């Protein structure tokens, strides 16, 4: 048995998320179907760095699986891509020692969130960036708000209320903004993220950008440990899992 | 009655083309539905510069229609976009005199054709560029082939065989190539294009790029006036109607 690590990209538009759910088309299901077929029906389990929700994209999700096939690692990528649907692509396959685990070995992640700020969003971007309805955010204020988020905090305020995780302390290493034409990108890196954390941060910091909140409120919101104090969860289709660090 | 000209963009992925066809979702149908609703049920006919096929995109299609509504021209764009599906966007609305006709007044068009030449096409580009399957074309050869196409010719060889148009003489003003990252763009401008002409040119010139044909064959192909001598019709989803000239 060899343990393989694969870096994959997917367009989340037509998936009910990463994780297998009965009756739904998911990324995990498509990966396991192809691998199981390649292994002549022997069920292959795929483990990811973490799940992503419906319509969330990935440009650098990481998975691992164990294989009994003799396919050389450098040919595995092609072998998978030939059979996978076109909205999932394998970018790289590496052989790891058996101690590697796509989820437990994670040391950090990077996400990107994209807003379209042109007057009318291009029809080609409707699944890939969130329309700002012509609003032009004040990025300096969003950067000011980001300073309260960077660091080690209990992020209960930015976590979906229905989560079972007990320890909600995480470290955000960086949180920055950049314009790409008329699209605003937020890039956030940290040692781990709670359920919906990036989308709630995006939703809250956006409200700062458009003048609905003051940047300094961020401090009180974090201290409150109250999800109700933070802003809306920003839409799923603006979010990209970009890199997983090990 | 005022005659309005609108410049529109659409993502062709989920359309059975521009023109109304019974039982199909088309761009014209969506436009006429919204306009007819705005006109309280009075049927509004929309005329485009020409049709586009299923899955072909537009970043600068032009339409005209006549309206009895008192909406100021500068508000018409918003009024339409609020009701249109998100894969069609109105970019501009202008008031014209009644002599303007979106189709008969056309003096030329510009199309773009896009190939993805990275080793594996990004899942985000699968509907928007044609995968080159890792082939790297020789663009200098494609540029050489383009020189035979530029000019005024009978383009029967590059016209779908089932067309009823009699005069197949057209003028191609320019035909050029440029790299955008790992995507190759072909931009073609002319006074008019026959049915499937851009896609057949793209398919034929691509075969020159990947070494399946010589650039100089282009001269014989055009002289032959034989569709069978030209290459394959390139896939629809790589094609964009970019600008209509009046």
TrEMBL record, chains A, B:
Binding site for substrate: 111
KW tRNA processing (keyword) present: yes
Entry-linked CDD domains: PseudoU_synth_EcTruA
Keywords: Isomerase, tRNA processing
Domain Pseudouridine synthase I TruA alpha/beta residues, every copy: 6-105, 145-246
A GO molecular-function annotation: tRNA pseudouridine(38-40) synthase activity
InterPro entries recorded: PsdUridine_synth_cat_dom_sf (IPR020103), PsdUridine_synth_TruA (IPR001406), PsdUridine_synth_TruA_a/b_dom (IPR020097), PsdUridine_synth_TruA_C (IPR020095), TruA/RsuA/RluB/E/F_N (IPR020094)
Reaction(s) this enzyme catalyzes, per UniProt: uridine(38/39/40) in tRNA = pseudouridine(38/39/40) in tRNA
Documented EC number(s): 5.4.99.12
Active site location: 53 (nucleophile)
Enzyme class name: isomerase
Entries under Pfam families matching the protein: PseudoU_synth_1
PANTHER family named among the record's database cross-references: PSEUDOURIDYLATE SYNTHASE, TRNA PSEUDOURIDINE SYNTHASE-LIKE 1
UniProt similarity note: Belongs to the tRNA pseudouridine synthase TruA family.
Subunit structure: Homodimer.
Its biological purpose: Formation of pseudouridine at positions 38, 39 and 40 in the anticodon stem and loop of transfer RNAs.
Name the record gives this protein: tRNA pseudouridine synthase A
Lineage, uppermost ranks: Bacteria, Bacillati, Bacillota, Bacilli, Bacillales
Gene (UniProt): truA
């Amino acid at each position: 048995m060899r343990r393989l690590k694969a870096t994959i990209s997917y367009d989340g538009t037509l998936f009910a998320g990463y994780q297998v759910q009965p009756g739904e088309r998911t990324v995990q299901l498509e990966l396991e179907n192809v691998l199981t077929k390649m292994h002549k029906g022997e069920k292959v389990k795929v483990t990811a760095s973490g799940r992503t929700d419906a319509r969330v994209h990935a440009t650098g999700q990481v998975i691992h699986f164990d294989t009994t096939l003799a396919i050389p690692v450098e040919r595995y990528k092609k072998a998978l891509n030939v059979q996978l649907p076109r909205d999932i692509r394998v970018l790289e396959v590496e052989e790891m020692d058996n101690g590697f685990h796509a989820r437990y070995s994670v040391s950090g992640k990077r996400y990107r969130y994209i807003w379209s700020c042109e007057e009318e969003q291009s029809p080609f971007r409707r699944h890939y960036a969130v329309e700002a309805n012509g609003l032009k955010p004040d990025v300096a204020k969003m950067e000011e708000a980001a300073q309260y988020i960077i660091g080690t905090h209990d992020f209960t305020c930015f976590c979906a209320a229905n989560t079972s995780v007990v320890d909600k302390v995480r470290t955000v290493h960086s949180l920055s903004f950049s314009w790409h034409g008329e699209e605003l990108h937020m890039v956030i890196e940290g040692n781990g993220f709670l359920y919906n954390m990036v989308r709630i941060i995006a939703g809250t910091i956006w409200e700062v950008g458009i003048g609905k909140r003051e940047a300094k409120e961020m401090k009180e919101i974090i201290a409150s440990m109250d999800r109700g104090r933070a802003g809306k969860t920003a839409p799923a289709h603006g979010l990209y899992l970009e890199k997983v660090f090990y």
